[in-house]
Design a protein that fits this description.
This protein is α/β, with parallel strands linked by helices. Helix content is 45%, strand content 19%. The strands form 3 sheets. Strands 6-5-4-7-8-12-11 form a 7-stranded mixed β-sheet, with helices on both faces. Strands 1-3-2 form a 3-stranded antiparallel β-sheet. It has a two-stranded parallel ribbon with strand order 9-10. Strand 2 and strand 3 form a beta hairpin. Helix 6 crosses helix 8 and helix 11 packs across helix 13. The termini are far apart.
């Protein structure tokens, strides 16, 4: 932890918030330099570590000392090693390696533009995911996969799949939810629809799980292209927060056309209370959308219900999950 230099002063909580970035930056720099992998071969001194990560000797020593203070490395004499926590999650190639922290490295850059974004009222960065480069995209999909993999099976098990034979996962990224659906019900098929730049990554994740025969991948842009048709369920997980209200209504209408009569749409996202202050992560995440997207935001239940009704959905229900997200489920109304 970064020490509280303000002591017991009444402003100490404010100072702790102001300095919180220091610990984050130490971790992200260490991750970016892959220093934990360098330490994995056994205790080494800072000069050896610097040689392995190709950095300055003195600066590497100070970084390793700071990581000791954060509980991520240990120091015995002049030798440094990983703590069990770091060895489990921060060494490249380990089963539980947090590859998605690469996305947090990129978030540092976008969040650094928050002041400019608040003044301007929108992102000052290139908002298109497809134009941010392969490294950014790979880290982003990895981060989304880690989150989805941890909760997809539990979320899907809470849905009634009795009449569902096919699922369309719009903007499905790694396919974590599509794979959860096919695991949940024998014979069910799923299709992931995502950008052409994302589709090869999606196929790689699906192949790794041995599910290529049950999960198809269709490349396209949901903002510009028609969606595939003939499904009993369409999933929009962590999608609507990237879009403006107008774009979301347009997307929901496309989703309705993808559904068979009586089919359902499932929206999973951070759903805000009416005054937009809770859940807390959603209030913070709204600023993430401000800095990183053209018009994204976090939305209230009433807003989402209104869009669904305008798009031709009825029987709208809400179900909260244990993962700080909410499901809003609607059924396709009418025959046309």
């Amino acid at each position: 932890m970064i020490p509280d230099f303000a002591g017991r002063h009444q402003a100490a909580p404010i100072m702790a918030l102001a300095r919180g970035f220091m610990a984050s930056r130490i971790l992200l720099t260490a991750f970016d330099l892959d220093i934990f992998t360098a330490l994995d071969r056994g205790p080494i001194d800072s000069v050896q570590a610097a040689r392995r990560i190709r950095c300055d000797n003195r600066a590497t020593d100070r970084l390793l000392n700071a990581l000791v203070s954060l509980g991520l490395t240990r120091k015995k004499g002049r030798l440094f090693s990983n703590t069990p926590l770091a060895a489990r999650h921060l060494v490249r190639g380990r089963p539980e390696y947090l590859a998605g922290l690469g996305h947090c490295v990129h978030l540092w850059d976008s969040w650094s533009t928050l002041t400019a974004a608040v003044r301007r009222g929108r992102s000052v960065l290139e908002p298109s995911v497809g134009r941010r480069g392969a490294a950014w995209l790979s880290a982003f999909i990895s981060a989304m996969h880690e989150r989805a993999r941890a909760q997809a099976d539990a979320v899907v098990k809470g849905l009634d799949l009795g009449a569902v034979e096919s699922v369309l996962d719009v903007g499905g990224g790694s396919g974590a939810y599509a794979m959860a659906f096919v695991r949940a019900k024998p014979g069910l098929r799923a299709t992931v629809f995502d950008l052409p730049q994302v589709a090869p990554l999606t196929r790689r994740y699906i192949s790794r799980e041995g599910l290529s025969g049950r999960v198809a991948v269709r490349a396209g842009d949901y903002e510009k292209d028609p969606l595939p048709k003939g499904f009993e369920l369409v999933l929009l997980s962590a999608i609507i927060h990237s879009n403006s209200p107008t774009a979301n209504i347009r997307l929901l209408r496309k989703c309705r056309r993808s559904l068979n009569p009586g089919g359902r749409i499932v929206i999973q996202d951070f759903v805000m209370n009416p005054d937009r202050t809770a859940p807390a992560f959603g209030a913070i995440f709204a600023l993430n959308m401000l800095t990183a997207t053209a018009a994204g935001d976090t939305y209230t239940e009433s807003e989402i219900r209104s869009w669904l009704k305008q798009a031709g959905f009825g029987s709208i229900k809400r179900r909260d999950t244990p993962f700080a997200s909410t499901l809003i489920v609607g059924s396709r109304s009418g025959k046309s």
